[in-house]
């Protein structure tokens, strides 16, 4: 049941991303660097994999 929920959330996020890209007529680079209007959430998460947060005060 948990897996079904996770897949549903991923599918909804992917659908929203693709819809927004289509509305804005934008593309994002895929894993090979080619522009695509239909990215997967796995590819998007991979792009944000190395982002870290550093907070200093």
What are its keywords?
extended; mainly alpha; Mobile element protein; two-stranded antiparallel sheet; 57 residues; single chain; 53% helix; 2 helices
Structure description:
By secondary structure, this protein is mainly alpha-helical. The chain has one domain. Helices cover 53% and strands 7% of the residues. The chain has two helices and two strands. It has helices at residues 2-24, 41-47; strands spanning 28-29, 35-36. A two-stranded antiparallel ribbon has the order 1-2. A hairpin with a 5-residue loop joins strand 1 (28-29) and strand 2 (35-36). The longest helix is centred in the first third of the chain and has 23 residues, at 2-24. The protein is extended, with a radius of gyration of 14 Å. The protein starts with a helix and ends in a 10-residue tail after the last helix.
Could you write a compact summary of the structure shown?
By secondary structure, this protein is mainly α. The protein has helices spanning 2-24, 41-47; strands spanning 28-29, 35-36. The mean pLDDT is 91.
Radius of gyration, in Å, reads 14 Å
Determine the mean pLDDT: 91
Q: Could you say which structural class the secondary elements and strand pairing correspond to?
A: mainly alpha
Strand order of the largest sheet: 1-2
Taking the sheet with the most strands, its summary is: 2 strands, antiparallel
Report strand %.
5-15%
Morphology call: extended
Note the total helix count: 2
How far apart are the termini?
43 Å
Quickly count the domains.
1
Low-pLDDT regions: none
SSE string, helix = H, strand = E?
A: HEEH
Percent range of helical residues = 40-55%
Using DSSP, what is the number of strands? 2
Organism: Methanosarcina barkeri str. Wiesmoor
Protein name: Mobile element protein
